[in-house]
Amino acid sequence: MEFINQELPKAGDTVLVGMSGGVDSTLTALLLKEKGCRVIGVTMSIWDGKLPVIENPDKPIRESCYGPGEEINIAECKKFCAEHGIEYHVIDAKEQYNRQVLEYFKSEYRSGRTPNPCIMCNRFIKFGAMLEGISQAGIKFDYFCTGHYARIVRPSEGLYGTDERPYMIATAADVSKDQTYFVYRVPSKVLEKVRFPLAQMKKKDVIELAKKAGLEAADREESQDFLGEEYFDMVFADRPSVPGDIIDLDGHVLGRHRGIEHYTVGQRRGLGVSAKYPVYVHSIDAKNNLVVLAPNDALNSNGLIADDFVWPGDVEPKESLRAKVKIRLASKPVLATIEAYNPLESDTYNYKGKTWKITFDEPQRAIAPGQSAVLYDDGIILGGGIICKSF
Predict the structure, then answer these.
(1) Which residues have a Cβ under 8 Å from the Cβ of 236 and sit 6 or more positions away?
(2) What is the DSSP-derived secondary structure letter of residue 322?
(3) Which tens digits make up the pLDDT trace of 178-194?
(4) Under a CB-based contact definition with an 8 Å cutoff, are residues 297 and 306 in contact?
(5) SS3 of 384, please?
(6) Strands 334-341 and 355-365
(7) DSSP states along 11-70
(8) SS3 state at 253
């Protein structure tokens, strides 16, 4: 099946640009302005000030999406827009962010899972609450553009024998900066108006263009995390951590952990135990408050079970399919077979909706419940879900 790249905004179109103050979104706004589009800048405000500003930190605090640096980011966006004659708005999304991202983040970690808050932020805030706020303000636009490295495509024919040709997400030219994993849950209906103008550009070319244009954002540190590590313990300070045992696969107690929310599958550093061989977090037993360690080889799994799946246009495959699967942002997509899964009666896991079984051609390491399994076919996202468990 062929997939058709969707056209980018043209001169005269009204384009809403999601701006963070970073080089990617700032250059996106500039390129569209120079193209002759009517550009409207928008930034979401998510920092509620409940966490204290860290005075005199031991080391420089890395730029993050959620943090006290938001005021500076908004000021820079406002300045840029004023200098280039761009209308600018700030949408208050604090309450939605707290509910859909922060509370989700804490709940998942406390359940022994490893969440990806950026995925939920894109789904419910950047491509959700922020656009809803713009709509409520009565602002009309033809396209919504961001600085994500991704593409929007449509199939040349209906998916899986249907007449549906939904808007879908595909990888960008700069594979090293690919951000499709973060946006796989954005609904096709929303994607209809979404475009990514940097899709065919390399990051180095973006930086070069930004510097030639004299953009202050060209020299800014990139935002790497949704939350600086300095704030991690503060976010979880609303409830005391519950220490428990660290054990091996045979149940032998190796030490004590300081609360399961501080651990994730595959982790090696900061375990506080000594062993005759390197050990890693193999699994987390939230019910019994245990962290289970094992040697590296024991972290390999043949497959996984995932639920809470999303499919482009809500069109599910009617039978099993072959695709490449990405199990975390930093992993390479690997070949697997995906098929519907019917849980056994003895399986007491509280699944969300229909479940799918993913069996890899080759075993994969450190599959972490709570992360997303995203399906790709030649760079096109076919769907994805949340990992429940490995096998």
Answers:
(1) 106, 109, 259, 261
(2) E
(3) 999 999 999 999 999 99
(4) no
(5) strand
(6) antiparallel
(7) TT-EEEEE--SSHHHHHHHHHHHHTT-EEEEEEEE---S-SPP--S-SSPPPPEEESTTH
(8) strand
d(CA 116, CA 58): 27
What's the chain's average pLDDT? Answer: 94
**Both tokens assigned to 293:** 């360690």
Radius of gyration in angstroms for the set of CA atoms belonging to the chain, rounded to a whole number = 22
- For 14, what's the count of Cα atoms within 13 Å in the CB-facing half-sphere? 6
Strand-pairing partners, residue 389, are: 305
Shortest CA distance to 385 belongs to which of 335, 326, 301, 336? 326
Q: Is residue 230 a contact partner of residue 27, using CB atoms and an 8 Å limit?
A: no
CA–CA gap between residue 340 and residue 317 (Å, rounded) = 9
Q: What is this structure's pTM?
A: 0.94
How far is residue 334's CA from residue 173's CA, in Å, rounded to a whole number? 19
Q: Under DSSP, is residue 356 helix (H, G, I), strand (E, B) or coil? A: strand
Q: Distance between CA 372 and CA 385 in Å, rounded?
A: 6
Could you give the CA distance from residue 64 to residue 51 in angstroms, rounded to a whole number?
14
The number of beta carbons lying within 10 Å of the beta carbon of residue 379 is: 18
Residue 240: exposure state from Cβ atoms within 10 A (0-12, 13-18, ≥19): exposed
Residue type, 242: V
If you search the block for the tokens 């220490």, which residue do you land on?
243
For residue 61, is pLDDT > 60? no
Q: For the segment 290-317, what is each residue's pLDDT rounded down to a tens digit?
A: 999 999 999 999 999 999 999 999 999 9
Angle, nearest 10°, between helix axes 23-34 and 70-83?
20
Which residue type does 101 have? V
